[in-house]
Give the backbone structure.
Amino acid sequence: MMRQVLFVDDDRQIVGALGNLLRRRRANWHVRFASSATEAIEELEKELADVIVTDLRMPETDGQQLLRTVQLRWPNIVRVILSGEIDLDISSLGGQAHVLLTKPVDSQELLTTLDRIGTALDHPIAK
Amino acid sequence: MLNSHALLARQLRKVFGATPTCDVALMSLVQMVDAAYRQHDADRQLLERSLVVVSDELTQRNRELMKQLRERKQMETELHHALKLEAVGQLASGIAHEINTPVQYIGDSVGYVNEAFAEVKQLLFWYREKLVATSAGAAAPTAPELLQAEEVADLTYAIEQIPLALERTLEGVKHVAKLVRAMKEFAHPDRSAKVMSDVNAAMRTTLMVAGSETRRVADIVEDLHELPLVPCHLGELNQVFINILINAAHAIADAGPARGCITVSTRALEDSIEIAIADTGKGIPAAIRDRIFEPFFTTKEVGRGTGQGLAIARTIVRDKHDGTLHFETVDGAGTTFIIRLPRTVMSENFAGENAA
């Protein structure tokens, strides 16, 4: 099933490279980009995504604030952090994110993570 | 009876008459004087002996003091180094972020090029196969077949994106190299003697190292004018700059979420050079303006500063460079720190040579 992922990063090079990387998964993933938290919210208001992958350190609104907003307004979106911070610990993020990836993350690991999220979304555990 | 002190007895006889039957009172006086002499003698010996002891002790103390002085000097050096590292430590996560980001996009880009090349290669091999087959008399592939093959290889995207991915990779590598070089220059240990140095270059290096911390909260405006070389300990000056730049970033962050501006300007004055670092932060409250240069005085929470930055900055500028460090501040509008370093005869000569 075709899924949508929204990448949020203020670095245009990161965005460009992720676009290249995800090109291989174009049959499964429709990839969208936002360069700031504000832009990400606007994107989601326009059209929902299944997964949001965001950087933390961004000017103005940072990634954590963005994820809090997403958690509140669209709790079904899978929240992933992709950050260059060195001292991060998912347990200290208080449920803001489902997955924590730190830059530099291996390209393959990023793809595998997305694949796994896709599979999980396709086969939700019955309630 | 008077034999206890023969000399004294003789003198007394001269004065009081030479009678062996001296007054009892006189006799006891002689005895008292005699006892006093003995006592004095004993005291003197005691005193001499204790003097020897005290002198030994003094020598010992002196030695210990010298040792302590040496240790203190050593500790000061170590402390100084530690504080320099502290500034770098504060920047460490920012610098890691700054390096991790390009490493991420370099990896993704090269990874893509690698895969894309494999697909394009496959397409080329397919073309070659068709060419061989066609020249052997087989039917040439039709236009839709060709398009289909190119589609599978994602050729249009590859032709557009491979150069971009390679460009991005080169830029990333350049960025990391530049940052690592700046860090190396920044941390360069000083020689004991001052060296004629380009303060603008040092400022650019420091701005690069501090960039991850400052750029997050502020735009950096560089207004660097041509400067003569001045004699300085560049490593220490870098430390002054970075301490003030970090303070500027903190002052802007504390002023609120709005993005601020840090303006760094340099200019040559008649007998000095001036470096000004201005922020649009919250300013320094009047109540603490007199205290900001005091060692260990800080308004920052633990982990954000130890109150040493400006104290060290002033020591370096004033004591080691015969310069001045002062500030101008407006509540709620920002602070400017101004450093002036003297242009020495040496530097004037150099400027003269340059002009010639």
In short: Confidence is low (pLDDT under 50) at residues 347-356 of chain B. DSSP finds eight helices and seven strands in chain B.
